[in-house]
Write a structure and sequence with these properties.
InterPro entries: ACC_epsilon
Number of helices: 1
Pfam family, one: ACC_epsilon
Low-confidence stretches: none
Mean pLDDT: 78
GO molecular function, one term: acetyl-CoA carboxylase activity
Structural class: mainly alpha
Helix content: 25-40%
Protein name: Acyl-CoA carboxylase subunit epsilon
Strand content: under 5%
Radius of gyration: 29 Å
Distance between the termini: 80 Å
Length: about 80
């Protein structure tokens, strides 16, 4: 299933392949290409943007405590 304007995945320059061999070769090359693409995506993940993400249930927000720094001397 190719589009008319798409470049071929590969060309056979020597030998005479029948339809089954050509289909098997196409499947193998397409799988290798997909594996390489997946590896490249895994090595270069997108930047994480955690803005607006829900916090974990064990993480509580900061609580204002006016007595936290009671031993500080103000001049």
């Amino acid at each position: 299933m190719t589009t008319p304007n798409a470049a071929p995945l590969f060309t056979v320059t020597k030998g005479h392949l029948n339809e089954e061999e050509l289909a098997a070769l196409t499947t193998v090359i397409a799988d290798l290409q997909a594996e390489q693409t997946a590896r490249a995506a895994a090595q270069n993940p997108a930047d994480r943007n955690g803005w607006g993400a829900p916090r974990p249930s064990h993480h509580q927000g900061a609580v204002y405590n006016p007595h936290a720094f009671g031993n500080v001397a103000y001049f």
